[in-house]
Fold each of these.
Amino acid sequence: MVRLQARPTDADWLAAAARLAARGRPMSRPNPAVGCIIVKDGVVVGRGWTDVGGRPHAEAAALVQAGERARGATAYVTLEPCAHTSPRGPSCADLLVGAKIARVVIGSQDPDPRTAGSGIERLKSAGIETQVLASKEVDASLIGYLTRARYSRPFVTLKLALSLDGCIALANGESQWITGEEARAHVHSRRAMQDAILVGGGTWRADQPRLDVRLPGLENRSPRRIVLTRGVAPDGVTIINQPSQISRFDDLQYLYVEGGAQTAASFLSDDLVDRLEIYRAPIVIGGGKPALGDIGLASLARAHGRWEEVENRQLGSDRFTAYRRTRNEEG
């Protein structure tokens, strides 16, 4: 018996647009990485994502690819089409109207006050059927942009590479290498998705880390380097004196914190970590340097219910696990 595959739903197309959006991160900064797919009669006729430097926008790129086939089609876009014009080009809402799109499905309303609902109203006033459909895939793809809008700071990922007994180095400070090649390559792929990478002053002085991306073809994705210290800024490096100062960087949506123990503890203590990524190697050190310093926890009860596992995979001999900080909309 031949099984007929079900036609993709609106949610499926939005999830696909969210995956497409990842191609724009982080090179789309200061704009969010947005994805757009244009579908007509069940066939993709155009697709696009935010280009380097933020232009062209995803909708503009998808419409160019679709051409005349956009007339009467449905556009699936992860973020509400912009409604404001700029010297860099017309608004995406106007472009969709001009292309005679019949329907637009949006994964997230834009918190930018220049759009914030007016993009949707522009589409509706032109007679375009417009729907906002909640999507966890879309929210995940825009999490840096949405975090900045909500908390006035970038989305923070804390990365830790540990032994089974929770150490990040031998007692003498030796830490290269706790994890294997597969895990280290994965770290570099994660670096390539960040706007900036941060370490503490002690780690900087002791290890002189390059903090770059060393995967073939992704070397140009090396993030901005930041050091948490009260010392003098090294050449090509930005310094901050305390974790809360990450709010100063208006152009950053994604910040990757790599250590050391006190820096990690200070970000956790200030409740600034949104995602925790742990690489655990199958080794026991004993008497080594612990992964974290004091984070000011007063009771075990406060430790529970704060982290939710969202990813788990094997990387060679090492185990990678990621956790999401559970927060309500008010923080």
Amino acid sequence: MALDFYAGCLGGCAGVLVGHPFDTVKVRLQTQDSKNKIYRGTFHCISTIIKQESYQGLYKGMSSPMAGLAAVNAIVFGVYGNLVRASTSDNLLLNQFLAGSTAGVVQSLVTSPMELAKTRMQLQGQENRLVRTAYWTRNSVTYKNPVDCLVKAFKMEGTRGLYRGLWCTILRDAPGFGVYFSSYEYLTSKVTKGNTLSLLSVGGLAGVISWIVIYPFDVIKSRLQVDGMDGKPRKYNNLFDCVRKSYKEEGLQVFTRGLNSTIIRAFPTNAATFAVFTWVFMIFESPSAPKISVEQAKGVLMLEKEMQNYA
């Protein structure tokens, strides 16, 4: 179990490193003002960030999911694994869904503040549409790091500010984890050969399916978490007000904004996670120890997918 945990952490870090630029793009597309758009789409957003903020702009806020990876890893493996083992139902897919959903609810309590810090840091600097200068770079940073972001959010709004968007995070992660686990279980049962390529493909496809199901909640979560950022007047009163105003101003398409970058991200992040996970086992696993199982791979792939809501 210890090797599972550490391999999962290292694999998750690799996935975060590979997938974070796409997460930054997703967040910026989700939260941009429809009446004053900065980005036309995924690749225009990437090129604009690189031009104005260098490649470092794509990795803003990455330290937040990196720092919380071990805690989320422990929660997910612990809650999910114990519930699956304790279940007495013969319906395997239902067990996977319920155990995954419960793990999603529990880990939301930890990841919600982490994602608030990540999301706000990812948006720093995007208002600069002119040539980047050293002076502008030094004086336009609101948050020095995720901890500084959380401290300032707490000073301005208290505990409520740290957990802004919590209900949306739960509404996203509970069904998201459930759909991911159950779809992964179903897809792996249809794969005749459990080789690396098959597992990567199934993990990526399961991630895409779960994101499509819960993506509108992720859009609303991002908008709520950056609402009132930098002391600006708040636009949304609550979750339902955010949904109503977003739909009124931009139509149904607002709830899928940034989905392309999320789908693109699913496969390379799963590949990086699984590769490092396997590499760690090859180095540290004793000859008498059991080989990597589909269940172990599934847990790590799921963890990485959810951490990049980073997911």
Amino acid sequence: MTNLQQECFIEVDYSVKNIAVVKINRPEAKNALNTQIRKDLARAFNDLSFNDDIHAIVLTGGDSVFAAGADLKEMANATSTEMLLRHTERYWNAIAQCPKPIIAAVNGFALGGGCELAMHSDIIIAGKSANFGQPEIKVGLMPGAGGTQRLFRAVGKFHAMRMIMTGVLIPADEAYRIGLVSQVTEDADTIPTAIKMAENLAAMPPIALQQIKEVALHSEDVPLNAGLTLERKSFQLLFSTQDKSEGIQSFMEKRKPVYQGK
């Protein structure tokens, strides 16, 4: 990758038009998520949320590992009060609340906080070497960044309970079968596939993409009728956009649309 902006343990690559590739770069610790990485990720995603030139984001840990969990050295002697005062939820929220489509490109381990980080994305592309898991139980803990919530919503109670209660690792093919990942590729193709998909998303109307993400995520927490109302209102809102007019006109004229996010 070229044209890199270095942010401590995070690299942000802007070399592909309208796309940001966010890479965790702490290979000596298998990209274990220490406090600094969480801060750097939050800063990067906050910046990208307000960057109108970026229409889609790829999140990766590189070719060998996504993130092998939280950095246990930082937790070994921590008290409940110390953990509370760290307010790590603020760092996670920067990713969860990002309005841009996020594609996670996962090779190798995505364990504990790494699995939770992948689940903060909208689409997960996994290499065949990928393994997902919530093994916190094996060190006397439990997931603390969405593992008991997002995982249940993704794969259902019985698959989630097996993963959380036993700490079992789930290979990529099984993760695909149970609905945890969107697509499985050869390891060498994981990041290129994610970037290609991001390019396709970046060519879509940005306001419509953002409305789709907002409605879909918010509707998880409301009754069906409320979700349908939110969907309908957002659908109606899009009729005031220039992109809607461009999309329909280009379809009728049998040409490629040019969307401007207006």
